[in-house]
Every structure is written in C-alpha cells, then in structure tokens.
# Entry
Amino acid sequence: MTQADTGPGRRRGKAAAFVFLCGWAGVAPHWLEPPRNLLPAISLSLLIATYVVRTVFLKLLSGPTANQDPSAPWPGLDFEKPGGGCPCPSVDVVVAARDEEAVIGRLVERVGQLSYPADQLRLWVVDDGSEDRTPELLADLEGRTPHLTVIRRGREAGGGKSGALNAVLERLQGRWMLVLDADAGLQADLLEHLVAYAESGGWSAVQLRKAVVNTDRNLLTRAQAMEMALDAGIQEGRLRAGGIGELRGNGQLLRRDVLEACGGFNEATVTDDLDLSFRLLLAGHAVGVLWDPPVEEEAVLTLPSLWKQRQRWAEGGLQRFFDYGPGLLSSRLSRRQRLDLGVFFFLQYALPLISAIDLFAALLSGTQPAIWPLSLVAMGLTAGALVIGCRRPSQGPPLPKPNPFTVLLAMVYFAHWLVVIPLVAVRMVVLPKRLVWAKTLHLGGHPEDHQDHDDDGLPADSDLSTQAT
# Structure
C-alpha cells in the first residue's frame, strides 16, 4: 500500500524545524520590555478568537442543517420499501481485533441487529494475532453467523491496525466500508442513517460522533466524554464554515473505491485515521461528521493508560502534518481550508510547545511569561465550545451536564496536552523512527477480569513499539 510522501526516517528534520520555530516564538517576546512583550500574544489572540467564534461558535449556534438533523427525511434512499427509491448500497463492516474476548461476541450480535437489508451487509473481523480466547470465540461465531467472515493474521504480521485493515481491503465488494472498534456500541438504525447521510451529502467518508459509554465510571471517563462532544462539535462547525472534518478511527464510514484510489491505510503511521483524513483531503474528497446517531465506545480508566494513548495520538497528529505539509500548503486546498488547518494546527500543536518554552524562558531569565494572553484565550474558547457541545440534544449515552464543576474538571483534564505535545515533539527529533502502536483494552462488562493488565491491552511491562526501516 502507498505510504506517506515522506517516510518515518525523514521526519527528524521537519520535527526539528517545528521545535526550533516554536522555541523562537516562545523566547523572542522575552527580548522585549514589558508591556510590549505581550503585544504579539494579544494580537494573535484577537485574530484567532475572531476566527474561531465566527467559524465555529456561530455556525454551531445557528442550529442543525437538514442533513444534520437525524429526524429529517433522507432523500433518495428508502429503507422501508423493498425496491423503493434508490436501492440500499452494500456495506462491509470491518473490525481489527486483537485480544478482544470481552467484547467481540457482543459486537457480532450488535451488527446482526442492525436494521439494514441483510443481503447488503457483511461483517469482517480480522483476528490480529490474538493470544486470548478471541480466536476460539470467533471460530464459534463464524460457524453460526452467516454474515460473518474471519481473517487471521500472525501476531508479528506488522503494520498495526492499518496492516490488519489492509489485509481485508482487497476482499471487500461493498460500496461502503464501516470501520469499528471491537467495543463499538450501535443503535439498530445507525447504519441506515449513516449511509443515507453520506449518499445524500455526497461525502466520500463520514465520521460518527464518538460517545463514551462508561462516562460515570470515574472523573477521568467523565472528562473524556466531554472531550468527545467538544471534538465532534468543533468539527461540525469547521465543516459548516468551509473547513475540514477528520476521521477518528471508530465509527468511520469510507467509500471503498475512494479508499483504494488513495492507497488504502498507511502502515507507516501510528494513527491510520488521521493520516487517511489528509490523504482524502488532498485527493479532493471531503470527510463529513454526523452528530447523531453516535458510535459508543469505552474510555480508558487510568492516567497511565491515558498517557500512553495520548502520546500515540500526538505523534500521529504531528506525523501527518510533517508528511503532507507541502500538499497542505498548495493550491490543492482552498484558501478557507488552508486557513482552517493553520489555525487549528497552531492551537492543537504549536501553542502547547510555545507555552512550555515561554515558561522555561521566563524561569531562566527571571521575567514574566509572555504567552499567557494567548493561552488564556485558547482556554476560554475551549470552555465555550465544551459548554455548547454538552448542551446539544444527543442520542446515545447522556452527556455530562456543563456546570462549574464539570467545566473546571474538563479544563484541568485538557492540561495534559500541554505536557504531551512538547514531550512528543522533542522525542520525534531525538527518536524519529520510533512508531508506537498500542491497542486500547476493552473491558466490556467484566472489568474485574482484567485487573492484572493496564488499559492498553498489554501486561504492564509489555511494549508494542516497532522500528521503521
């Protein structure tokens, strides 16, 4: 399969340039006398706040469009009348499963309960070298489930989740490919709404909102539930303003011919979904976002598990910008799309690193931090988007109600990105070839069965790191 335009061994220079530029931006204001040293941050704060409020907040507050209202009729598709309207397109549901004995049976049952024409639906499960009871469970399920096909790969087959998905891609025949995690929760009518939204909107890919099913387990899972609502809401606002939407792995619907034309899934990245989002974008294929119905999933339960997961997300997020940077800056994207990418790249990746360097420079020079106005505005925008997202009507598990406590909890939780992003950026300069891939452990209804493991699905001393050659 086609890999990124620049291999993992060539990312060191781009990562170093990114760290250097952010370092210069964090140190330079300290060369100015107060209060002039605050002017760069204040000026940039006003520009970014204006853009985000106009393109995200106002768009979200304007209410759903017809294509975003789950109760609205879906033109061109009729799921009630056999042969009526346009025939339902065929769909292949694909799951990459490694050590998923706690949830794989439940997922097969849920897919079988989807209210979609049975002759147009097939489930594929790639057993990616499972060492628990997953192979035995899948063998039993395959024998009594007509729509299920199981493909088995060795534990050392390579490529992570991307390799597992590529293993089945050439065997698919459906118009659409729905990628699910093994713990996915699905409403019975999810697929008909999702496919109709994709077909009527002309999308080449659609990402479902991810809803945390174990929200009330602890404060960490509650914060993650709010984060997922925030993310989906911001993506919707960006799309409505002419920006871009992105895939999030679980609950992503892909048009198979478009996916194949883009080269399938990139096995040289640690986040197949983020990488594919940019390849689709550069090929002129938009990614839509659907708020309801959502796909349900489990949030990680502990801080060590969150730390591992977010390092992988941060590394994959930066990799895609380094790999596809020239194309993202070219005329292949519209001016609005380039602006949208620039603003959110700065907020998500550059600002945490600049803030960390600003604080370090302040400690060394004995001066006051100079980036705090920009950080304060970014926090305010995040809190505002969080409140809007959590107040929206939603199907699936209830969202935490935004009150002073939950908003404060979420803002404290989001501070982990201020540590993760700088650490990962510097590590990519020092260790550019380290591709970390680790699955998230799915507990299902029996968390007590997994007390000896951490939440990435491995014993505490295991490592799934691979070296790219």
In short: The longest strand covers residues 287-297. Strands lie at 91-97, 121-128, 148-153, 176-180, 205-212, 252-255, 287-297, 434-435, 466-467. DSSP finds 14 helices and nine strands in the chain. The chain has one domain: 1-444+454-459.
